[in-house]
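From: lab user (bench 3)
To: helpdesk
Subject: output format question, protein + 2-(butylsulfanyl)adenosine

Hello, I'm new to running complex predictions and I'm not sure whether the block I got back is the full result or only part of it. Here's what I submitted:
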Amino acid sequence: MDVRDADQTPTEVAAEVAAEAATDEAAREVAELRAQVVHHNRRYHELDAPEIPDATYDQLVRRLQELEAKYPSLLTADSPTQLVGGGPSAAFAPVQHRVPMMSLDNAFDHDELRAWSQRVNRGLDLADGAGDALGYMCELKIDGIALSLRYEDGLLVQAATRGNGQVGEDITANIRTVSVIPHRLEGAPAVLEVRGEVYLPVARFEALNEAQEAAGLARYANPRNTAAGSLRQKDPRVTASRGLAFWAYQLGEVVGGPELVTQSSALDWLGTLGFPVNPERRVLPTIDAVIGYVEHWHEHRHDLPYEIDGAVVKVDALAFQRSLGSTARAPRWAMAYKLPPEERTTRLLDIMVSIGRTGKATPFAVLEPVFVAGSTVKMATLHNADQVRLKDVRPGDVVVIRKAGDVIPEVLGPVLSERPEGLAEWVFPVHCPSCGHLLVRPETEAHTFCVNLSCPSRRQTQIEYFASRGAMDIEGMGESRIARFAELGLIADAGDLYFIDWDEVAGLKGFGQTSIDNLKAALEASKARPLVSLLVGLGIRHLGPAGAGALAAGFGHLDRIMAASAEEMASVDGVGATIAASVHQYFQSEAAQGLIDKFRAAGLNLVGPEVSTLRQVLAGKAVVVTGSLVGFSRDGAGDAIKARGGKSPGSVSKKTLAVVVGADPGASKLTKAEELGVPRIDEAGFVQLLETGELPSAPVVP
Ligand code: IVH
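Helpdesk reply: Thanks, we reran it on our side. This is the complete output you should expect:
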């Protein structure tokens, strides 16, 4: 029980308890949001494979910012709100940006744009309205990849991506193939860094997708991701073939050159040096005029031969920019106005049902092709029977489609005024469209399933999932190849991938020796993947990467997992009863046993990480580390705590067992520990704590 101040009234105590509970709740939500934002940053910036639409990502960041504003004690310097984008990836050499490449704050409606202009005015000590005399530079927000070009004595010496804003990736060789980017400048200063956006024009993107389709390969999702992928090519010839383009919009480091007074004159100057500068830029005198500009482009975004996701408004006078300055993440003198996800209407031609890897029967809309948010949409998921009923969409309807910012198309609903008379409601099929087996909807489920383990559709999607990036990551083994191999009877399950008759493949159209060699190498490489990837790849219902990781670590070998009872599995931290039951049931099936036999015969890694044999002396306890220790790295100290069953959170709360204080500790953690009466211990005390689980008898550190 907590000891509280004896003088407090019950109301005060109740208020304090409520406030604490609210902070705890917020802390949990903040931790969860941060993990999600970090994850999606990596998917977007490093892997070029976003999983959620931009708009959803923006909501996550917004909610996180809101909570951090409301509970300042939860704001830490390493929060993704304080950092820019993802980290650099390992494939290209790192480049330290001499002037950081910042991100932009976002406004989602006119009010937020006006509020920003008022903040600008206040920041400049200008009366409201007088600030309009500043002049706003309005630019389009190009939906591409940020790039920094460095010229020394007029020669292009380096091109780098933004990375995390401080350190990017060196992609000079690839950028040299982009024909609109000058290699040599006339009359340039000693050092000139130009920032801008590399993008793929829509026409090039469409042509590329036509070529993909003709070759039986999967289509690219949208121009932005395709541009990102094109820049990450190891072979610059591939980049060259893509037809990338560039708009310059900002200066980085400049040594020498003309005296520039405004952003607009800087852009004009870049134009005279030979850089492509977007012609739709405007200097506008008032925030009302700025709103006119953003609305114009809201209406006309599709008149452009490239994709935009909004507009960027910058204070034009560079002296004002300097005096406004920046936060850790973004300049105060600029604001991105994000356009809402666009909507289009098209005809719903049919509703069909696809069978996923767990047998889940998912209805999807077959649409009259419509161009939305950067690519042609022909299909969209409808999730399940209830969703179809709820949305009341019927084959023959005109429907509203949205592609929330980028990747995943969604059917919002029908345009009822255009519904043909007597249009019949759609009925969920009774039989599996692939194998004809009866479809089953368990009472407690929103989904319907094909329960036939040998259903060909189900098997095929299982193989796709097995080979996908999130699982065994077998490069080149995508949907269309798997479909082809399966149709030809070369594979029936994921285990068969390792025993493909390559002589037969060699006779197929579209398979040269190089692609066969690449596929073989990718399969070979996958054999050594960690056990967790294999477990994920099995596609067992309810088992995600976290549960798979817990099982792999808890049992240490696939055989031990297969031999375990559901109860034994559920006793592993991080494995709930639902997961345990599902995994147990899965391994009981003959199909699963046959599959694992093939993996074993192929020589796949079945061994997990070493099982911790340490006594769990810190089970369920939280120990916070601050400052640097001699015998442990920052991660090492956390790992040592976790290996003994404890947690190592980033902030001190009343539940913290102890704060380990190293050299240069964080002042806020120390103060918090003192306030809450949490014991502070030194490194020797920490070592003792790790060994015994007991605090030293006199733990206080000065
Ligand atoms: S200015 C310090 N201007 O949007 C200001 N950025 O969401 C740096 N972007 O990282 C950016 N068009 O990749 C600026 N006209 C434009 C832009 C633009 C697109 C991108 C850029 C930036 C991102 C922020």
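A quick orientation on your result: The chain has a mean pLDDT of 88. Let us know if anything else is unclear.
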